[in-house]
What does this fold into?
Amino acid sequence: MPNLNKVREYRLARAWSQEQLAEMAGLSTRTVQRIENGEQPSLETLSALAAVFEIKVTDLTAETHVESSQALDDHISEARLQLARESRFLRSLITAVVVCTMLYCLNRVTEPGSNWSLWVAVIWGSVLVIRALRLFVFKQWINRWQQKRLQKILRKQD
It folds into this structure.
């Protein structure tokens, strides 16, 4: 449960109006008003407010359990890492499509009887399919395996 007075405290400590805070956080003024009046904000809203105040999300919460606060920060960090991985994959996909299209056009202009550009597209596409499977399909399985492997390695060192 967030400590709603903390949002107000942080805002007033910076001498910001509710409108200024809402604009900087990308929220509506009404959302800021609701939070300060006791409504439960979403994790996304808390994250936006914490970013504006340059603090951790847990600093805005009144949880008495340190583990719960740490779990919340871990959850947000993991979500950001996943977003970064997905963004890198999409950039790779776009690059592959553009480059393979250009190579295909070059292949058709220079050697119409040869299909060497299709081999490049098949190989690059295969690599992207493997990355997509790892990123979207087998992510949980890979994470569990990594955790088990890490625990096993740490036990050997003790």
In short: Helices lie at 4-13, 18-25, 29-36, 43-53, 66-110, 116-137, 139-157.
